[in-house]
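INFO batch 0412 | record 1 of 1 | parsing
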Amino acid sequence: MKSKDQRVFLEALDELEKEKGIIKEELLEAVETALLAAYKKNYGDKDNAEISINRETGEVKVFSRKTIVQTVEKPEEEISLEDAIALKKKSKLGGTIDFEINAENFKRNAIQNAKQIIVQKVRECEKKNIFNRFKQIEKSIVSAVVRKTDEKGNLYIDINGLEAIVPEKELSEADKFIQGDRLKVYVGAVEESTKYTKCFLSRKVEELMRGLLNLEIPEIEDGTIQIKQIAREAGSRTKIAVYSDDPNLDVKGACIGKSGMRIQSIIDELKGEKVDVVLWDEDIRYFVKNALNPAEVISVEIIEEDGEQIARVEVDEEQLSLAIGKKGQNSRLAARLCGIKIDIHTVKSEENEEIDEIGEEDEEE
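INFO prediction complete | emitting tokens
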């Protein structure tokens, strides 16, 4: 390696350390290890060779390291104490002494080999850095910027300099974005593979809703209000069961916020997805009644059929459509939220009952 090449080589390592955050010493050690492997491949192990790169000049040296012994049994690895003292007066048994090997041809090619090694090492370090950065945000909600959407509907995003993809299947039906839009996304499991970092990203999972609630509602973030359960149909509607030990706290009011601002921020982030805040109750009957909001429930009875608990719910006829919801969504989410099957029945209102009674009297007359 010529002196000019040596200097350029070290300067390049300095630049990599600044730009990529890759420690220069680690790169030099990797180059020394790789060059030694290349030397042994070409020349064998007979010289018990070692390779050193001068940290100041970049000069590559190949030398044979021998252990100082009383009696030499392996000449390629050992040297007698007498011969060692002749070369270096302070030599002692058990120590080592180095002999530089004349390997000019190998050293001339070292710069080219070093470049290839550095390129590979840089790729490995970048891959490791990307994995470590993703690992730091694993199982959390992060802000991102939209870069593009491909023809398959996959969303390409930038998370503070990290490129990532939210698969189309992990986007809700309401998620429509253009380049430059900002959004929140849930980062799930992060795994290291042979080629790249595998990272689960989603806008559909319940964890995203849980994270948004923590971000927007301080009482949830500090534990004053607990999220007991979430039932979500992403892009359409979510029911959240909340509870607090503080009897003086307006739990629903705290979650909704003044003029609905807190919950509206979450709705806006989720592109209009409806969010129902439900009061959790230890008594499953009251919990089911609350979960069927906005429908007004007359009564809830817990029965058992074939070993399964069922909530038998009664509502007025005019409340039936509200209780069931569009395409059964309200009752379906309520059942998931409460963890119990819900069977809704109607009862006639007092007004309807009076009309029916009058009709029956007319027929008798």
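INFO post-check: Residues 205-280 form a domain with the GMP Synthetase; Chain A, domain 3 fold (CATH 3.30.300.20).
INFO record closed
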